């Protein structure tokens, strides 16, 4: 299951309330949001998790003004993030449930049941679900095997990878196998990044037209398909791919990251200007220096944003009112909103739905 962070919730609040990022912070009870998000991670299943989130934010009145509207928008974003949709009609039933939640006249099982009856899983076919589960199993089975293929950084190298980077490596192996290749090269790592990554890496690449189908076509043009079907089991890395993994680790250390993420692996592929991955990106119109600059800007912006939100959760809220602090929060949280542009369509859909039922989303 994928989870929202405080940044996501603040972005939803700012858009629903149509206020600045600074005002969104001041109109949000960050402690209440943190508690609700923490409780969600202890829930079992999407319906229960969504119910816990809904109940926690409603009861805590986490948002000053339009608390219900913002809360429902946050819950909708959460279920959408997990390939599902939540049917709100009839709105009267939803309003009644929210009244009972606010009055503490219902329990988590009733709320979860309400949501379960209105939850529709979207965007994932049976085949895609099977593939998703298969990759999760591969993460458990293949990462230990990848450990044994590692030389130079020690057998625990992959313990430094975060979950998204691990998935990218496993998908890279599957990409190599699908092309009947008996090795994992930088080109397969690039495919793994594209198909397994979210956020900054995916956006930086897709903005330049570096997408999986185009990359596959060029890999086949440059290398060709393997002569024989790739064997089952672990496929080894090429020396250049191993070097890229080493460099990715060094990039993560250089940039002060606690774990190696897909963004560090992309930087490593970009710095290796002679690898097949770099050739492919160049031929698709991506200038390596420009791509490096964009991903480093994204990393820097995310780190600064995380630092700001951490400060907000630990400092005396009265310090937010100083001009310098207010200016800093505005700049940093606007950066968060830029990264959360994907929320806009979901929130707009909610507002349109509320208007259809003669409900003013700004009231």
In brief, what are we looking at here?
With 363 residues, this protein is mostly helical.
Strand order across the biggest sheet?
1-2
What is the N-to-C succession of helices and strands? HHHHHEHHEHHHHHHHHHHH
Question: What percent strand?
Answer: under 5%
Helix count equals 18
Helix content: 55-70%
Ends: how far apart? 33 Å
What is the β-strand count? 2
Low-confidence sequence ranges = 128-138, 151-155, 317-331
What does this structure look like?
With 363 residues, the protein is mainly alpha-helical. The chain has helices at 6-17, 21-26, 30-40, 46-60, 67-81, 91-102, 108-118, 126-148, 163-178, 186-196, 200-206, 212-222, 239-254, 262-271, 276-283, 288-314, 323-339, 343-356; strands spanning 84-86, 119-121. Strands 1-2 form a two-stranded antiparallel ribbon.
């Amino acid at each position: 299951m994928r989870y929202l962070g405080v940044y996501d919730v603040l972005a939803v609040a700012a858009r629903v309330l149509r206020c600045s990022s600074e005002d969104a912070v001041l109109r949000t009870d960050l402690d209440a949001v943190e508690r609700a998000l923490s409780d969600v991670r202890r829930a079992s299943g999407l319906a229960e998790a969504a119910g816990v989130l809904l109940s926690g934010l409603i009861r805590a009145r986490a948002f000053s003004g339009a608390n219900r509207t913002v809360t429902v928008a946050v819950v909708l974003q959460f279920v959408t993030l997990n390939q599902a949709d939540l049917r709100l009609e009839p709105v009267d039933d939803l309003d009644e449930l929210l009244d009972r939640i606010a009055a503490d006249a219902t329990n988590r099982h009733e709320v979860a049941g309400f949501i379960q009856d209105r939850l529709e899983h979207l965007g994932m076919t049976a085949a895609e679900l099977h593939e998703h589960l298969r990759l999760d199993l591969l993460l458990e089975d293949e990462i230990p095997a990848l450990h044994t293929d590692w030389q130079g950084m020690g057998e625990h190298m992959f313990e430094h990878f975060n979950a998204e980077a691990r998935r990218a490596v496993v998908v890279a192996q599957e990409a190599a196998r699908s092309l009947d290749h008996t090795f994992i090269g930088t080109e397969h790592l690039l495919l793994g990044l594209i198909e397994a990554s979210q956020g900054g890496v995916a956006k930086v690449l897709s903005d330049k037209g570096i997408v999986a189908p185009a990359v596959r076509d060029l890999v086949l043009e440059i290398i060709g398909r393997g002569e024989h079907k790739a064997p089952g089991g672990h496929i080894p890395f090429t020396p250049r791919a191993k070097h890229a993994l080493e460099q990715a680790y060094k990039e993560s250390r250089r940039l002060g990251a606690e774990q190696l993420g897909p963004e560090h692996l992309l930087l490593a592929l970009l710095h290796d200007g002679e690898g097949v991955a770099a050739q492919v990106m160049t031929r698709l119109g991506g200038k390596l220096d420009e791509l490096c600059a964009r991903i480093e800007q994204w990393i820097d912006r995310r780190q600064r944003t995380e630092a700001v939100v951490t400060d907000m959760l630990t400092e005396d809220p009265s310090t937010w009112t100083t001009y310098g602090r207010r200016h800093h929060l505005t700049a940093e949280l606007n950066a968060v909103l830029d990264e959360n542009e994907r929320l806009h369509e979901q929130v707009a859909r909610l507002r349109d739905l509320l208007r259809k039922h003669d409900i003013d989303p700004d009231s």
